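Batch job 17 of 40 flagged for manual review because the log was empty.
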Amino acid sequence: MAAKHRVLAWMPAIGIPENLCVAITRADDSTFGILHSRFHDLWSLRMCTWLGAGNDPRYTPTTCFETFPFPEGLTPLTPRTRPPKSLMATR
């Protein structure tokens, strides 16, 4: 999604992001606060891709989120766990 300002908001777990909306699945306030910081804002403007005739900044997970230097011990890139069996598809 190309926009001058990035909007971060808590969403219900049952919500499904639309086409170009970036969903960051974390439930902790520290990650949310770090992503709202001025440092992350400047980082994302420096690392983002640009789109359209107006050269609008585009927040992409691979260039903005995954490369962001989170403070030591607060990195959200934790190993994935298997979902509960109740959520897994059956054959």
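Reviewer: the log was empty due to a logging misconfiguration, but the result itself is present. The beta strands are 49-51, 56-58. Unflagging and moving on to job 18.
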